[in-house]
Protein 1
Amino acid sequence: MNFYAFAVGLLACTAMTTSTAIAQDRLPTIPAEQYSAEQAQAAAAFEAERKVPLSGPFKPLLHSPQVMTLARSMGDYLRFKSSIGNTLSELVILLTAREWSQDYEWFIHQPLAVKAGIRADITEAIAQGRRPASLSSDEAIVCDFVSELLKNKSVSDPSFERAKQRFGGQGVVDMTAIVGYYSLLAMQLNVAQFAVPADANKLPRLPR
Amino acid sequence: MTVSTTFVRLSAAAAVALGAAQAGAADSAAAPPAARFPALTMEQLNPYQKPLGEQIMKVSSVGLGGPYNPLLRSPIMGQRMFDLLYYLRWNSSVPLRLNEFAILIIGRQWRSQVEWYAHAPLAIRAGLSADTVAELKAQKRPSNMQPDEALVYDFVTELSTAHKVSDATFARARQLLSEQQIVDLTTISGTYVTVAMILAMAEESVPAGKELPFKAGEP
């Protein structure tokens, strides 16, 4: 990315920050004391499974409590138990968050990715829309597969074959489902204009 | 750059020459490439896959094919995605006509043979006009939509192409839909993006002998 594009991205970020106060109102977080019986049950099931209070995309999703529970259940597998393991899944999530310019997903998952073993310079390159210069063999397979899927709406034969040889049929299906699931969450967050803390690092806006 | 381009061209030329030399000997060169995920039959399913396979067969218009073929390779995830799809299809707060329209908008963007094959008839049966479906297929903004259809078109198109929904479109959504319906419409869009990704990754097609909705060479 050239300097001009980066500057445009920064400007876009600044413009966005000023509108978040209004933005939060799009799909307001429901206060616990106003939960319907179904919402209370869905929130309790979330806390029982995840051991943390409802957060992020699950707040707007709670407007449709059964959908929230069904989506959460996919996430229980794709985030924590997928067949590609929890390091590479975090890389998939960052590539997906970058594609959707989803600041909240990035804010939550960039530190998780680094903690799981993805180098910070790799996450920085992804944030800027660059292909990271130096990747392990597994990371390169994931980056090629996911980037092609998001940019080309297809995966080339060489990238597919490398991924299938390394991760198996279940692995490539899980990897694709992680891209899809985090795209779904990004769409919820983008519709709701879900705010990130004021001091969170925001993704530069890239022209689409 | 120049060197590698030249190399690719030379390699391609060499491959053509090699292919021509072998063509007489091997008619199998014309055979279709192996499927990325060979089709499964109910008899082939293992105990982890079988319960999901049985549920699929009750509702699927493509048997164990389409997205179900790759999804069966990851049966726990496949079951959970099936449960979400089932809810969205039968219990969504969004009327079926709009539900199916959203699916077709995503299917058109991904040029998804399977999504279009399965859902164009369902959309028309649910009350979406055949003209609207035809114009969407031709990549035009349908010219004669109901107000709620026009909203769904703008909302889903903005979200999936610009990756955000404008204030004007969101305000229209709030006039016509409840908050739950907005969440469900977004979930339908995102879930069928996921299905389109799985279909594209797996290179799934329509059932054998059925016509492809998008012909070779067509956008």
Note: Chain B touches chain A through 47 residues (CB under 8 Å).
Protein 2
Amino acid sequence: MTRTPFRAILSVDDSESDQYLNALAIRDVDPEIEVLAAYDGAEALEILAKLAEPPDLILLDINMPGMDGFGFLEAYVQAYGRDDASLIVMLTSSMLDEDRARGLRYWPVRGFLAKPLGRDWAEKVAALQGGSGSGSDAS
Amino acid sequence: MEVFVADAETRRFLRANRGALRNLGYGLEALRLRTPLDITNPVDHPQIKQVLRELGAGTIERCRLEVRHVRANGSEYDAEVHLYRGELEGRQVILGLARDTTELHTSREALERRNDELAEFAYRTSHDLRAPLVTSGALLERAASFLEADQPGDAADAIRRAREVLGGLEDFTVNILQLAREGVEPVETKRFAPGELVAEALTRVSGVPGFDAIRIESIDGHPKELDSDRDRVRIIIENLVSNAVKYHDPGEPESWVRIETIATPDDRFALEIEDNGLGIPEVHHDRVFEMFARFHPRVSNGTGLGLYLARQAARHLGGELEYHDTGRGSLFRLTLPGGMEPGDVQAEGSRG
């Protein structure tokens, strides 16, 4: 089992099943990581506002009813600066270039991973972090 | 169509047809004092000057331009102009044929908008078809791992989730098919009792978790039969009944759904479905009937197509489907043409 630098991760996804899969994949890597779940962008912002410390990673879905992934990013960059922001990785099943380009315009977004989150997510996130910032899913 | 003749040398207009004078708002005498530059937007002047020069010199014989015409009153319109070099009564002239393309542009914009909607539809559809497949595949993989690790309870849980996701996918494909048919299938009118459809819809949702705890109040205030398209009315009623049941409020001590058929004073058929469920947040009230609008992702993996489809169907039948804010839960009201001709009433009377 790899040790990861992650203590808390916020998973933002409207699908109950994807939340379940995210939590399992995170636990595979490190059962100590605290997993927070939000079902749309607005709920994610509420949860973030209540936390004393920002989570180390935000896994963000794009397509969500209510406030979607891009709506969340728009609000997020208004509310948080480079000192108190989390690393954001977008999860998507669309893999549309437009979506990628649009997501990467927001500075906290480090890259994209294909849904569902696999057991190797931590290495992939680390690769995105080490990358040029225009990172994408290697698989 | 506007027709102009201008002197190739002085560039002043010599003649114009009635259409040109009417569109531009000039009399012929007033137009004769002007050149093409006086009836076009300055933005277009460099290009017009060059074209007139070349036509005058004979380096080109004809050309086509898109310009903004300026009326006598200062207002403007888009015009497509064809210019030809010619000779009239021994003089070198330029003949212009112009067409107001405002309408063309409006319909092109409408087409472009429609195209954008289609692209959005294709994007959403492919996402909503692919995402559940990917997710259920991953869930089944998890189930297999749980079985290998001798955790049958967890495996069963993962399989249950996969089935739920696939059930949602099935609903989605059914809705897409209904939507495709809704637009093209002709309305087939036949006589049926709307109460039957309510009963059928209730049977279909009886398996929804929590159904047994919901008090269903069904009032048949429109005991007459209805002449309408049974299949479309069924789709509408099924959607409304299923929403009322699926989106009940688990925090509510006593959930209820009221389903009432009504004969309206103007002899139309109305159906009201009211509940004290989760309702729709006020900020989303204008989006209730929008395609792909979903409001309670946590409760149910709805397709976001049901209410859109139901309203389309209602309108197709000459009726309407409306949402009313009651402050708690939802109230949907469907109205349809009654279809009860005086002869029909008599026929019904003689039967009963």
Note: Confidence is low (pLDDT under 50) at residues 132-139 of chain A.
Protein 3
Amino acid sequence: MNKLLSLLLCLSFSFPALGVEVRANHSYEISNGSIETTSGLILDSGRRLRVNGFRGGWAVEFQLLDDNLRPTGETLVASKRWLEEAVRDLSIDDLVAVIQRQNQIIESSTTVENCPPISSLRPEPRPTDLMERFQATQPARQTPSDINFKSQSEMERYFSCWRKTDRLMGHYRDRYKASIENASRSLSVSTSGELSEREVTTVMSCLIHRESAHWLGDDSDTGAPGLAQIIGDARQEVRDYLSFSPRSDGDSWYDRRIQIQRDENAAGRLSRRELASNIASIEAERTNYLREAAVHNLWNNIPLRSRPSSGQISEAYVRNNANHQSVIALSSLIVKNCMIRLKDSGYEMSPQMTLFACSGAYNMGVGGFMNNALSRRGPQNLETWIRNLRASGSSQANETINHLISINRCINGNQNYPPCGTDSSWCKESGMPTFNACTDRPDPMCIGEITRCNQQ
Amino acid sequence: MQSAIKISFFFLVLISSVNAEQKWSWSKLKVLESKMEKWKGTISHEDFVKIGKMKQRPDEVEIIRAFFPYLLPKEFVGQKIDMECYPAFTAFQKERDQENYDKWESCLNKLYRKEKPEILKEALEDLRP
């Protein structure tokens, strides 16, 4: 009885969300959101299409319809579920409107002595034009050269310009700056020349500047402690890197385990599926092992006055700003780990953009940033990340957007836009041009900046 | 009045029966694994790689990413990140004990920090030993 009731209730809740069940040889209009095709086109509301058939139960094959509701252009493919949620049946009104329009054209054409050729009534489809139109909605390519990294002196003036207090600025100059340079130098070396010391130092400085709330290094509203705001999960992550012990036989251990799995399969003790699953799992262990080894290696290569053990990395330790040298080094491990993960995962990204992405992923975690911000297709840039985050529905979206914009404003040379949420300005004293977010309207604007500007 | 109480009770029973229903269990995952493997067989490798580049992916792909990422093609964007916690998950699947659950959860926490995908949040809740 319970099962029947729950089924009934489930059905009653599910129906409104099901949308239209599309059928072959029927026409539809996109009326709710947009549709993404496997070829990368984004089809917005108002586009009409005719379903030609299905592919493997998961996808719909269709063609776009022209103004006269005739299929045009190449066959496109989209996910069935998403398409069904986005379309509505073409109504009889739509069809009547088309017929009426055609009648009007025919009537008006009969008054002309020399009738235009049929093709003028039924223009040839122009798929190339359609393609251009859709591709124009794709973001402009941001090449690595789009990041014009600030020099060390520019950065110091930037921090001074948007400083909280003289005392905190003094802490940066006298303590944190050298610690950031120290960790950045080793992180740069670990990239085998892919990233210069200046690029890494700039991004790491801007990241810690943002995380520490302009070198304050206090607990955040959410309880994240210290200069680098290393929360519980991140502390566990860095503890794992510190306690990592390399295997004496390197990663050949994984090869031997894989061979054992193959032998078991050959002996009939392991199914084909189990073999595939086990080998993939061992390969993933190897990937994790190699990544952790690289991060552990970076840790060993950062020169530190005092090197804490894994067990010492407590909340109190990372909260204590006297530990700035090792805490900043720990934050560089989180960035390094992220860079390896993204590099391994097939995203089209330069090392510079990867570094920038990892400063953005610092809060959200790599998995969260991958799901919510990164584009799965094409080059990555700040605009697409912001758009993706806005569409993600993530509760951390706004925070991450402002985090990214702040770091972007900080790292880019020839710019002096304030970090998001910053009001005070000592720019004249710092020898930096005075910029006002409200009058200069930097693009992109921070979340809340437009509202604040409108209130002024 | 009595009929109002009866109707309220009826809906309470309905809601509780739905709430009591767990979305993920080991037996369901076993069935799903076969289904997902069959589903994978219905699409070409090329199409699967294309799906990896899409935001609007079929539900099957999200299930595969969460529980059976070994079925993803190597060229699937983000495949290595999706595979990251798979060893911890398979160890937990084998032992089904608290220790391995904690390791799987810790791996997901490190990867996603505060905000895990909904499917994994539900699984962590439902599969807790």
Note: Chain B touches chain A through 51 residues (CB under 8 Å).
Protein 4
Amino acid sequence: MSTLASRTALAALTVVGVAVLGIGLWLVAHLGTSGTATFSASPKGVAAVLVGPDVLNRVDAPVTVTARAAGGAAVFIGAAAPADAQAVIASSPHASVTGVDVTDWALTTSTAGTSTVGTSTPGTSTAGTSAPPALAQSDVWRSSASGRDRTSLVLSQASAPESLVVGSADGATSAVESVTLEWEHHAWFFQALVVTVVGLLLTLAGAAGLWRSRRPVDAEVRR
Amino acid sequence: MTGRKSALALALASAVGLGGCGLAASAAGVHDAPAPTRTVAALPAAAAQRVATRVLTAAEAAETQSSQAPRAAVMTGSALTMSQAAANLGEAGGPQAGPVTRPNPPRVLAISRGTGWPRTMLVQDAAADGSVVLGLLRSTDARSPYRLAASATMHPGTSVAALDPLAQGSAIGSASGLTTTPDAVLAQLAASLAYPKPGAAPDVDTTDHFSSSVRANATATAKGLGALATFTQVHRVVPGQTVVVPLAGGGALVFGLLERVDTITLKPGGKTLTLSAQNQKLLKRPTLTKKAVLQTYETVVLTIPASGSTSVVAAREQLVAGKGE
């Protein structure tokens, strides 16, 4: 292999190493020593949020769901069979959590229906939509939690697949301010640490190779 | 050639990138969500227990109210009709000084299986007098809470055979391999309780406490009226009210609703007949000069065993309407 090709490969190795090291450090910083991955969403102006099993049940670790209501209103979280959660939501305006975006540590959402939250006139939904469900009146919940301003619910994966519905306990049109999902998986911290170490080794190997390959050239130039 | 190399490099890079993402996801323990299963109970046992306790506590509290609204919030079907009729006749308990408390929580015996609607729960509860009550709780759709749909007091010495495990749920509403259909046994029971000419009930053991009591009361009423009036009693099965809960070892537990119509007809030339205090309240008149028709609901719970005769294990009756002239 020519000297130029060798140097190019070593430079590439160094760049890849730095990138992997950066990713590793970034993961370690976000996951912490507990290996906790936290993703949030702040859907605008919806009274209910639906989180399906394709988000909740993709890892075997328990997931902690925290919801906040706008203006200190009461907020309810219920876990149910996916078909039941969908039936409770029906055609009422809501946001569906469709996945997680690791680059932003955010929940990706899509909105269905037209929301009327934030207005002071209940029952003014656009035609084709139904009123927000009174979640506490339904008996489909396998587990639930409710509170004023903020509430949390921990779901084990024992009952998977499950869906979550976040919204108003009594059908009020107050908005859900934010939903946060948090998975704690200790192995993730060590995996991030491994990525960091691998990145560091690649960087050192690449940099050392480059340093060694530069000296003969320098000597030739000096002669 | 350069173009081909670029395309190949792009394809390789994509494959490595996608493979890398998949490997990273796999290494992080990310997998597809498990597929839903339909052979489990609609609610886990703990959640069902919470629902049953809430509904029965609220129903007990509503029994003490005279207005219908609290009842309608926690009862439906025949349970609501019978409870409101009892309140109208002044048979319900008086207002409670405080909230109703239950020393012993109800026991959930069966829960609907799967994700269909309506859903039913079979519960066993202890009444204030120590008797055991079987109750049916029903939820019509995902947004409607469970309500008490029917209840009946178990007869002393009777029992309910084992039901399917709670976690597995029960196929409530259907039972296969029965020796006779639920509709048939209810029709036979109704016929056997007619007075003065009872029909045959080859598949039902009618020596139970409820059947014996109904027949004895009819005979006593007719005897009491003597030559003053004639007394007839017919029963019919109220359609759409039958609920079948399959038993684990074959057979089924059947909740049915019978409507009993008692007719008292004064004989020609007869004098007036003074009504009992309860009937005076119902018919809004103190005496009869021609005829009275009294309508009573009877919730009956029968066990259809895998083999052998069907028997009544629990019953509840309530005078609900009447007219007199």
Note: Chain A has two domains: 3-30+188-222, 36-184.
